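We now fix the convention by which a protein and its fold are recorded. Think of the row as the fold of the chain written in a discrete alphabet. Here is one such record, which you should read through line by line.
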Amino acid sequence: MAKDFARMEDSNPSANPTIHEVSDPARRVFVRGGMAAAVAGLFGPLAAGTLAGCATTGTTGGGGNVSGLGRSIDFKSVPMAAVDTVVVPEGYSTQVLYRWGDPTGIAGAMPAFKTDGSNTAEEQALQAGMHHDGMAFFPIEGSNRGLLVLNHEYVDDGLLHPDGMKTWTPEKVRKSMNAHGVSVIELQRDGAGKWTQLAPSRFARRITALTPMTLTGPAAGHAMLRTAADPSGTQVLGTFNNCSNGHTPWGTYLTCEENFADYFEGTDTPDAHQKRWGIKKGNGAKYRWHEHEARFDVSKHPNESNRYGWVVEIDPQDPTSTPRKRTAMGRAAHEGAATALTNDGRAVVYMGEDSRFEYIYKFVSRDAVKPGGAAANRDLLDHGTLYVARFDVDGTGEWLPLTQGKGGLVAEKGFTTQGDVLIKARQASDLLGATKMDRPEWTTVDPLTKEVYCTLTNNSNRGAAGQPFMDAANPRSNNTMGQIICWKESGDLDATRFTWNHLVLAGDPKQTRYEAQGNIRGDTFGSPDGLMVDARGVLWIETDVSTSTLGKGEYANLPNNQMLACDPTKGEIRRFLLGPAGCEITGLTATPDLRTLFINIQHPGEPANERSDPDRPLAVSKWPDGAGRPRSATIAITKNDGGVIGT
């Protein structure tokens, strides 16, 4: 995500109780004796390697036990360094596959990338977008051929155009919009383990901020979703700021609309709803779409922003299909959508909302998944129950249903219909008293134990004057380093109670401030973001330290972003990869045989102000081409002996 902390959304003024405000003395025990003592108690046992409540069983059975290898990680750790390349352990290789500007593979329309940024808006719509993010691999022929579907989160206009934003035109806005969205590409692996993008491909597709989409589910047609261009409230143009993702057991891709507020120019007098969603004056200055696309001017089109912030379902096997925004899953600054199944075959989707003091959600489908793929489950995500999490001080928690008529979500409070609840999911969660989290990002479900993990990337506002105080789930003030939280449902995945703990508090033990030291058993890291438990139970962790923070202050010993591997049954964390200068490590998926790991290198060369100087495009990084412009890219990681990654 874009990480300009001065601009970062922080729009939750709700009075949800903190630990200090809970009337039950038993639930206040965490802060008895002061927060410093509580944090010390929390750090102590975990630092010894005990991860109570997080994959403590050591289970390695089931379908995820690839080749009987279990969860073990066996590679030489990569040392931290300030580099402008991708570094992996001895015995591993990387291959650059799909860079910003590479042709997507649409037959008869494969324009080459121009290194001076002079590709047209129409050409950009046929090429890889900028700033690759979440992605998923969909097998066609086992692990040797498949579709890779990936997000393009946002853009750096300093690189996108030859002169950056020195001039501003409708053509530049269209190009920016076409550099957002999603790509579908086809890949094939040869006998030597090398990957090739198949182009042209009948599956190749670009989805952009101008692609027609349909709103479905309980909020579709709601008055707050209707506009002059779409009086039905069901037809939307495009998706953007697509951050993390999910994929479903029936073969579809879920892309998540995150910081959509950054694209809408607000008014001088925003109403309460707009304030709660961070729609304010000055937002539009970042991308300047509103100057040539009137729908992004809230004063002219006040409902347009309500049509974003949804989970979008895409069928990668059908390039003619219309993407669907699934309103039953709620509106948020969605980060990810990790999907699993209950014992009776219903879909459960875990979702974070990456903004300061926002929430963690769970959606449980009404119906079980049917055989027959995407066609048979076309409406599955339109029916179900959305929940928001409350983490209690005693290590238990509850999923609070976001259902009209329950828990005070009634007409007198502004929730007349279920559509009201879903469009105003933040306000509904405020009312229910959900726990305000430290920027919940990616979620992942352990396929062996069904434990769930979520990265809480950081929150420097925690405990500041006028801001929410620390609590059990978010125990550190000025939380610059972040943590990974985990929970186990009390029964099946549709349960409404759970037990929780922290897997790890990120940090650097060399720092003087106690709250920045963390309790990592292994290699140092901060700002955890991307997250995936693979089929054999290894937890992969990617970091997203802002370019204005890398190598400075409490991150002085961490000049580059990285990816690490963790055996959650032992607590050991080992650094597997370093990224080039100015990048974020993100996107995380694997072939079924775990012999290729795909990740994305996002915004290599990004300067501290997050917008490159068009006159000096290579000032920070020359990756991956060594000339022209730095380019976000997908890379494939393989083991030189053809073995399973991480062993």
About this structure: The chain has a mean pLDDT of 92. Residues 35-47 form the longest helix (13 residues). The helical segments are 35-47, 121-124, 157-160, 170-178, 272-276, 373-376, 418-423, 425-432.
